[in-house]
Structures are given as C-alpha cells and as structure tokens.
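Researcher: Quick test of sequence recovery. Tokens follow.
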C-alpha cells in the first residue's frame, strides 16, 4: 500500500505550497510603474524587453523604444514593431565606439538621444519605455548616471521602464525594482555559427 500514501503526502505538500503562494499573491497588491534592468553577458536581454512590448500591445497599451547602440538596422523586432500603431521607435545611437572612433561625436549623439528619451519620460500615454543598450553610454560616461536616474525617477507614476545592456552600473541596479542578470552558459556564436534570423536579429 505504498502508492496511496505517496499520493496523500504529495497532496498535503502541494496544499501547503498553494497556501504559501496564495498568501504571497495576496500580499503583492500594489500597482506602480516599474524600473527593470536586464543585464549580464548571456543572450536574451533585448528580446525579453521586446517581449514586454508585445505584452503591452496585447493589452491595448502603448510603448516607446529607444535604441542607444545601433548594431544593425535589419532586425525582425524593428521591422515588426514599426508597423504597430501603439509603438514609437527611436534609433538614437550610431554604432559601437570602435566603429565610429569619434568620442566627441559619441557624446553628442548620446546627449541628443537622451533629450528624446526625456520627452518620452514625460508622456503618460506611454505605458512602457524600453531603453535598449542604455548601459553602454552610461558605462562609457557619455551620459551622466545622476541625470538619467533623476529623469527616470520623475516619470509618470504608472509608466514602466526597461533598461537592457551588459554591465549595468551598480547605482542603476540599486534603484531598479527588478534586476535580471542573464548568464552566458553557452552561445552558438562561439561554435562558429552566425547570427540567425528570428533568433539573434
Ligand atoms: P538578444 O537581442 O538576442 O536578446 P541580448 O540583447 O541579450 O540578445 P546583446 O549583448 O545586446 O545581447 O547582443 C546582441 C546580439 O549578440 C544578439 O544577436 C545576440 O544573439 C548576440 N549575443 C548575445 N549574447 C551573446 C554571447 N554571449 N556571445 C555571442 N553573441 C551574443
Ligand atoms: Mg541587446
């Protein structure tokens, strides 16, 4: 008669677990605009942010996207989301610094870009703002962290902000509500496989 015992024990365990989960859900009843940071060396930061843009649109809400380091202009997400009514899409960066090789221009581009973001951070009709690869201009000192955090802090109370990019500064992670670090366990690129449409771009 081992089996019924096991099933009963499992049911008891699951019942206790359900009570704990239900309690946690009942406790988490606040509504507020969140600041999320998706960082780390593993793949999945930008694609996760764009997944949240899709979720927003599914709820009939609006999203703004600002891309700070423009790697390529042929991505599936840009082609798709530019066709959607509820999305404003800004490309604010020019490319990685080793490609532009002009520091003064990088700084100017980043500052001009931030002025565009500041407008979005004052627009309560935007429910979500994605600041894709914002960590790089912060890391290179092209944008001042204090200024950036201050503008984010003063956004409309229900607006969500998602920041992606490797090496997110500590000061940013400290004030964020949700921080996820993508861990690079393996990446196909290192096995000689080029970026694949729909997966990497
Ligand atoms: P994704 O856009 O796929 O979510 P990501 O935003 O986490 O990736 P980035 O650092 O922005 O990663 O790099 C963008 C591109 O580089 C993507 O094509 C991605 O697949 C690729 N990539 C991401 N992580 C790695 C890695 N650890 N090694 C090699 N290539 C990577
Ligand atoms: Mg990315």
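Model:
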């Amino acid at each position: 008669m081992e089996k019924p015992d096991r099933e009963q024990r499992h049911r008891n365990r699951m019942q206790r677990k359900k009570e704990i989960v239900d309690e946690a859900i009942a406790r988490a009843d606040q509504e507020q605009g969140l600041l999320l940071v998706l960082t780390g060396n593993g793949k999945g930061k930008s694609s996760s942010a764009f997944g949240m843009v899709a979720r927003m649109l599914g709820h009939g809400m609006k999203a703004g996207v600002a891309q700070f380091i423009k790697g390529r202009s042929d991505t599936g997400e840009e082609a798709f989301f530019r066709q959607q009514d509820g999305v404003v899409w800004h490309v604010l960066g020019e490319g990685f610094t080793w490609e532009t090789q002009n520091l003064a221009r990088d700084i100017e581009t980043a500052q001009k870009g931030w002025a565009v973001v500041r407008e979005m951070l004052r627009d309560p009709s935007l429910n979500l703002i994605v600041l894709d690869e914002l960590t790089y201009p912060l890391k290179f000192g092209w944008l001042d962290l204090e200024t950036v955090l201050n503008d984010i802090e003063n956004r409309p109370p229900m607006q969500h902000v998602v920041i992606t990019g490797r090496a997110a500064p500590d000061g940013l992670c400290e004030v964020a509500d949700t921080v996820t670090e993508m861990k690079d366990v393996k990446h196909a690129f290192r096995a000689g496989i080029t970026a694949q449409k729909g997966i990497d771009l």
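Residues 41-47, 164, 166, 182, 184, 187, 189, 195, 200-201 surround adenosine-5'-triphosphate (ligand 1) (CB under 6 Å).
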